[in-house]
Amino acid sequence: MSTEDKIWEDFIALNSRDEPTFELLPRVGELEDRRNWTVDTSFATADAIAAMEAADADPLPATEDREGYNGDRHYEYWISGAQLASKIQQTAAEHKVEPGIYAELGAASGRVVRHLARRRAFGEIWAFDINWRHIVWMERHLPTNIIPVQTSSIPTLPLEDASVDVFSAWSVFSHIETFELQWLAEIRRVLKPGGIALLSVVTENQIGRMDKTWPMYEPLTTHPRWSPTFADELKEQGKIVLRWRNDRSYASNVVYTKEYIFRMWSRMFEIADYQEQYPDYQDMIVLKKR
């Protein structure tokens, strides 16, 4: 699409004038292919997982309608969302956070919120994404106790001050080119005192461990900014943006150092926990509003 063909929203959001139609996959209980290469299912018993499958009556999105998550391994996609939903509930309980309002930035087509909604895990569930197609998919095909709202690259959320108990953003800060600190400030604004945010990031941990089988390997190593000394340069800079396009946002890979995160993000939050390689190919930080 040329610049002349774009509407103004295309510069800060995705697919805003789309009139979506979708190919739907069956509900999880009807899938014959049960491949799962990456998700540790020890978060629940086999009986509990079977009960989750039976309770989920909603269709699954096609691969192209879920940011490509898990390729054609549709069961793995579903259970990865169940795993993260359980992690969110577990972390909230560990930090004694009330299950009032939950908000997720970068919810895509509801990989995680579909599980939280079915479990009635929170009183309100807000699902934000930059892509209008994802918002429409959730509105049409997921439970009505999810509130899907399109956002943009501008760091603002339609939520009241100090209203949110638990916030999450999975594989979002690994793509925020410029306004990372502003988004953190916005998350801080909407969190209640004592509220928590679970965020995932790509750091030197992944750079040191990744191989050609990792989904991030090709995007990182084929970028012109990549070099044999990338890890050393990252250590010096603290954060490096590998930008693929200049005419819109959500077109970059962003890599941080753990030292940068602790030095910069701790100015706004208490860093309550840091787990390497969770989930899968990123690190997870739990931030708590003081």
Would you kindly provide a brief summary of this structure?
The chain is α/β, with parallel strands linked by helices and 290 residues long.
Q: In words, what does this structure look like?
A:
- The chain has 9 helices and 11 strands.
- It has 290 residues and is of the alpha/beta class.
- It has a single domain, classed as Vaccinia Virus protein VP39 (Rossmann fold, 3-Layer(aba) Sandwich).
- The strands form 3 sheets. A 7-stranded mixed β-sheet has the order 5-4-3-6-7-11-10.
- Helix 2 crosses helix 3 (113-119).
- The radius of gyration is 19 Å and the shape is globular.
- The mean pLDDT is 96.
Strand order of the largest sheet: 5-4-3-6-7-11-10
Task: Decide which structural class fits the backbone.
Answer: alpha/beta
Helix/strand order: EHEHEHEHEEHEHHHEEHEE
Q: DSSP strand (E) fraction?
A: 15-25%
How far apart, in Å, are the first and last alpha carbons? Answer: 45 Å
Tell me how many strands there are: 11
> Regarding CATH, which class?
Alpha Beta
Could you describe the largest sheet, including whether it forms a barrel? 7 strands, mixed
Spatial extent as radius of gyration: 19 Å
- Annotated CATH homologous superfamily: Vaccinia Virus protein VP39
Mean pLDDT: 96
Number of helices: 9
State the helicity in percent bands: 25-40%
* Count of the separate structural domains: 1
The shape is globular
- Uncertain parts: none
* CATH fold name: Rossmann fold
The CATH architecture category equals: 3-Layer(aba) Sandwich
